[in-house]
Automatic annotation (TrEMBL):
SUPFAM superfamilies, per the entry: WD40 repeat-like
Matches recorded under InterPro entries: WD40/YVTN_repeat-like_dom_sf, WD40_repeat_dom_sf, WD40_rpt, WDR31
Coiled-coil annotated spans: none
Xref: PANTHER family: SPERMATID WD-REPEAT PROTEIN (PTHR19869), WD REPEAT-CONTAINING PROTEIN 31 (PTHR19869:SF1)
Matching Gene3D superfamilies: YVTN repeat-like/Quinoprotein amine dehydrogenase
Protein name: WD repeat domain 31
WD-type repeats, residues: 1-22, 23-55
Keywords: WD repeat
Keyword Ligase annotated: no
Amino acid sequence: CTGSRDNTLLLWDVETGQCVERASVSRNLVTHLCWVPREPYILQASEDKTIRLWDSRGLQVAHMFPTKQHIQTHCEVSVDGHKCISCSNGFEGEGCEATPAFSHCLWMDRDL
């Protein structure tokens, strides 16, 4: 999966090199993407100050976290896939936040 500053996410078939899904969200300037281990989900950070969880089966937003105070520059998911964290670079000495989120917000189809 790739994302860009043109507000799009593209899901690729790695064997053929063909784009198989395309999604676009207004003002969604993608800054980082990461796959959730062993799940069909992609976590995405954005310049619109949001973190989105995408379901790769159809490339639809499965969950959107509450809007943060600053532009989100990076996101990661724990190895077990139960936790995620995002961070921002802040602005004029403020921010530089790291925000944890927990699985009960994310994986509604998994019994934890």
